[in-house]
Amino acid sequence: MKDVSKKTASLRVARAQATLHCFPATVAAIRAGNVPKADPLATAKVAAVQAAKNTSLIIPYCHQVPLDFVGVDVELRESSIHIYTEVKAIWKTGVEMEALVAAGAAVLTLYDMLKPIDEGMEIGSVKLTEKKGGKSDFKVADLSRFRCAVIVASDRAARGEREDTSGKTIKERLESLGVAVVEYTIVQDEMALVRNELIRLCDEVAVDLILTTGGTGVGPRDVTPEATQEILDRPLPGVSEFLRSHGQQRTQYSMLSRGTAGVRKKTVVINLPGAPAAVHESLDALLPWVFHVFPMMKGEQHEEGFNHSGRG
Fold this sequence. Notes:
This protein is α/β, with parallel strands linked by helices.
């Protein structure tokens, strides 16, 4: 199975459909309630729901997903039956297989129940029609147009007593997305030094995003949140709350982080913890979605939402 432990849970929606081609007389028999094996449509809907909930037992590498909704619609046409399924879950991985398995189970159930009166049936396509959730929804045309900076707040790293790994991790992750990291600096845990570096990068260099690492705990030299709060025009409390929530699901120590986030002029500043593992987890939560803040700051319209109702 693919390791999805690093992913964050989000609303996942998928729709699929399947088609059964049959004689017109078969459709007429369904409408009249003259099918020997009871009600095929109701049975097919139950089969679809059961199949969706048991997808991981049928498809070996599918994860067990806690489903929030399975919907099934059946449409009778002159010489065909069309099944539409919709599956929703707030989870770390998509639900397209659940929607497809539901549609497949429904059409197979119809075939089984209708074969006594129609030996010429043919199962048509079973296909995914829509999906939503995860990184595939993120729409920023070109991340390379963003200019970012990394600040490492660490007495020992600034004195050369230890090699910085957290700041380099941030730099590498940003660059892997095509983002330009134009500044990478290490400063001591001093209020004035951190504050002045933030102001310089915001006001003079005018980068789009600053990610700091270190100095967010409760140690006597941990002053990064205070320095950041001093220079911000507007806070972004949801960012730091989300980072702590994401970390809390992986280690209880996340609750001790005091990192903050906000905007100064046109620059977004976000404090990350100093521990390398915590930096990795924070970047998993932030990237690439945090870049949606920039079209918002320009007053651009949000992307249209996914239509959760109706057919694909």
